[in-house]
Specification:
Blueprint: H1 5-16, H2 24-42, H3 48-62
Helix pairs in contact: 1-2
Length: 76
């Protein structure tokens, strides 16, 4: 399922509150409410931008050897 730029911007607005200060519990609640949206938007293999732009550049920057392990923390 594809989402329009407007859908993604509205989701960001809802998640980040656009300038509002919110506590941890409120933030967690908003993320939980939007989890299905992001699961659908990113799919099983992330989205095209991540696959075609982010992953190749991160791999280039890290230049890992085949025996290396990479720990991805809090990156989605």
């Amino acid at each position: 399922m594809e989402y329009s730029k407007e859908d993604l911007m509205e989701a960001k607005k809802q998640i980040w509150g656009v300038g509002e200060n919110m506590g941890t519990e409120e933030s967690k609640k908003i993320w939980e409410e939007n989890a299905q949206f992001w699961d659908n938007a990113m799919g099983d293999e992330s989205n095209e931008f991540h696959r075609e732009v982010v992953r190749p550049k991160v791999t280039e920057l890290l230049s890992p050897n085949p025996a290396d392990y990479i720990l991805d923390i809090a990156c989605g």
